[in-house]
Structure formats: structure tokens, C-alpha cells
């Protein structure tokens, strides 16, 4: 893959690591880096070698937000974290949706749709109305962070490698259903899951798991 201009990229063991790399400004995003990230991730859809992605920042910070034409408007970094499947943080982490601090609404980039799903309506409302920082301890207690550790990046990569070595076709279906089932009732969700599982019952990974179980071995999944 071509090395991007606005962030660092490395890959190992089916895991890609994106490192936002403007440490002197705490890794803000620009319109150009937004566009490059968009195009880069679209290109990854055709890359069969990369199964999971870790996003991190250089210089001890994750992302200070959007570096717009009229100055810094932090908050986009919190959106990237919010939109991720799993979030690991250092004990010193501070997360803030700062749109209101510059006169903008908190309903930016999906925050009003996604943040209440993660931490609850009342907690999301407080963060979006006030723009205050959420500590790592709060984020863990509220379910925003999956883990808080001094080894946050190492744990993220270890988890990503475990997921990449698993049944990635099944993981993809789980991700799809986590999104799709927000919009339906329980009865319809059960029907949707039955169809999804029926599709996966024809997968090579299910056959490999069955054969490994019969042979009392650990399955080696290939994602098909």
C-alpha cells in the first residue's frame, strides 16, 4: 500500500495501525487528512490481508479535533473514538465533545445518535451540552472505554490480533447486526439473526471449527 501523507501506517499479523501524526498540535485533523483517511479506508475494503484496524496518535495524545479554517475546534477526535468498535484508554485520558464551546451544536458527526447508545441519554446530554471532559475513570464506568491501562496501545494491538485471527466473516456479520438491530424490534431482530446464522452455517470457518473440535484441536480460521 502507498504510505499516506497525513498519518503513519504500518501492518503486521493482519492488523493495520493508523497513527495520527501531528504531535506538535496534539494530532488535529484537517480537511485534507479527513479526505485521505476516507479514501484510505475505502481502499482497505479490497485488501484481503488486513482484518482489523487500530487508530492511535503520536506524542502521547490521540486527536485534538478538527483543525478548521478559523482555528481549532476540538471534538473530532472524540468522534473517531466513539465510532470505533472498541476503545482502550490510558488512565490520563480526557475525552470531550467540544462543539458547544465554539457555538456549534453537539449534534455533529453522529454524536447525538451514537453517544447515547454507548453511555446513556442523560450522560451523553451532559457531555454534549457542557462540552466538559470525561475522565478515563468515568469513561470506563459508563461503558465508553472497554479497558483503561498504562498499556492501552499494546492491549489494543493484542486484541486486534486476536480478532484478526478469529472468524472474521462472523465478526463482520456481528458488526453489521449490532448496527442494523438498533432500528427494529426484538421479534424482527431474532428473524434477522436467524438468516445471518443460516448464511454463516455454509461458511468454511464453521466447517474448520467443527473439524477442529472433532480432532480436539484449535481451529485455524481463514475468514470465509
How large is the count of helical segments? 9
Which CATH architecture of the largest domain? Answer: Alpha-Beta Complex
The end-to-end span amounts to 23 Å
What's the helix-strand series?
EEHEEEHEEHHEHEHHHH
C-alpha Rg (nearest Å) = 19 Å
Overall structural domain count: 2
Based on CA inertia axes, which overall geometry fits? Answer: globular
Q: Largest sheet, order of strands side by side?
A: 1-2-3
Helical amount: 40-55%
Describe this structure in words.
This protein has 9 helices and 9 strands. It is α/β, with parallel strands linked by helices and about 220 residues long. It has 2 domains: about 5-165, Alpha-Beta Complex (2-enoyl-CoA Hydratase, Chain A, domain 1); about 170-215, Lyase 2-enoyl-coa Hydratase, Chain  A, domain 2. The strands form 4 sheets. It has a 3-stranded mixed sheet with strand order 1-2-3. α3 packs across α4 (about 120-130) and α7 (about 170-180) runs antiparallel to α8 (about 185-200). The longest helix has 15 residues, at about 185-200. It is globular and about 60 Å long.
Describe the secondary-structure layout.
Elements lengths: L6 E6 L2 E6 L10 H14 L7 E6 L8 E3 L2 E3 L2 H8 L4 E2 L4 E2 L15 H9 L1 H10 L3 E2 H7 L4 E2 L3 H13 L3 H13 L5 H15 L3 H11 L10
Parallel strand pairs: 2-3, 6-9
Antiparallel strand pairs: 1-2, 4-5, 7-8
Helix pairs in contact: 3-4, 7-8
Amino acid at each position: 500500500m502507498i504510505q499516506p501523507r497525513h498519518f503513519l501506517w504500518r501492518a503486521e499479523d493482519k492488523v493495520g495501525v493508523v497513527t495520527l501524526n501531528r504531535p506538535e498540535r496534539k494530532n488535529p485533523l484537517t480537511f485534507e487528512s479527513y479526505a485521505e483517511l476516507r479514501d484510505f479506508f475505502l481502499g482497505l475494503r479490497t485488501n484481503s490481508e488486513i482484518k482489523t484496524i487500530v487508530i492511535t496518535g503520536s506524542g502521547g495524545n490521540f486527536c485534538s479535533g478538527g483543525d478548521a479554517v478559523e482555528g481549532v475546534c476540538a471534538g473530532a477526535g472524540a468522534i473517531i473514538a466513539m465510532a470505533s468498535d472498541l476503545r482502550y484508554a490510558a488512565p490520563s485520558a480526557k475525552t470531550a465533545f467540544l462543539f458547544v464551546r465554539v457555538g456549534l451544536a453537539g449534534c455533529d458527526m453522529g454524536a447525538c445518535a451514537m453517544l447515547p447508545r454507548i453511555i446513556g441519554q442523560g450522560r451523553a446530554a451532559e457531555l454534549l451540552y457542557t462540552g466538559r471532559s470525561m475522565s478515563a475513570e468515568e469513561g470506563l464506568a459508563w461503558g465508553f472505554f472497554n479497558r483503561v491501562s498504562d498499556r492501552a496501545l499494546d492491549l489494543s494491538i493484542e486484541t486486534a490480533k486476536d480478532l484478526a485471527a478469529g472468524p472474521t466473516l462472523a465478526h463482520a456479520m456481528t458488526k453489521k447486526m449490532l448496527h442494523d438491530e438498533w432500528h427494529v424490534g426484538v421479534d424482527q431482530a431474532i428473524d434477522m439473526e436467524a438468516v445471518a446464522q443460516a448464511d454463516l452455517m455454509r461458511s468454511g470457518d464453521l466447517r474448520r471449527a467443527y473439524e477442529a473440535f472433532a480432532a480436539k484441536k484449535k481451529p485455524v480460521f481463514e475468514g470465509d
